[in-house]
Amino acid sequence: MKINIAIDGPSASGKSTIAKRLAQQLDYVHIDTGAMYRCVAYLAINSNIDLTDEQSLGEMAETMDIRLSVDGKVFLNQKNVTEELRQEEISVGASKVSIYANVRKAMVKRQQAMALAKGFIVDGRDIGTVVLPDAEVKIFQTATVESRAMRRFKENQNKGIDSDFELLKNEIEQRDYQDTHRKESPLKKAEDAIEIDTSEMTVEQVVNLIISYIAERNYFYD
Ligand code: DC
Questions:
Q1: CA of 69 to the centre of ligand 1 (A)
Q2: Which one of 6, 37, 137, 149 has the fewest beta carbons within 10 angstroms of its own beta carbon?
């Protein structure tokens, strides 16, 4: 029997990396909900919509076309925006637009429609609490600010991008604050989620831990 797996946690805690690997190993489909809020920010910026204009953002969020391909590409109104969505301006913008109730309502509706059946691994901030409260497995993935900033720093280094460690750390702290203090669906651990602090763990270790947690509950054999 297939199940649904919710992975929530703060920015840069490696949720997408883990979700992608798990999806490959289990032959499940990964839904990156952060990419959807990034699309809202991207389209708003490119349409000159103010990131505090809740009404226009909400209307835009209802009508825009967002498609997530199984190989991890993101298409916004038929345009492949996968790379652009990773820019710092978009990360900051996504954190801003995701505070609004009508933006969230539009995104949650789409996410619930996408994961209507089983066999999905959905990562975000409110998956275990709001989007898929019935998910069989809920993970709350954390890591210290230092280790998250270090991962981003190394990622950038590998891409040949210069970055300032302290600046990355500050940006992550600011986004944590914004995501945990907003009124609408703030980031918080679902009561029935298991928390994994990945600061000192490799990707393989986290993936194996989650797979053994699922196996212990016999979900693979039902
Ligand atoms: O996971 P990410 O960094 O790509 O997410 C970008 C922003 O979108 C993040 O600052 C918080 C927001 N977000 C959210 O509010 N709810 C989600 N389910 C996913 C992301």
A1: 18
A2: 137
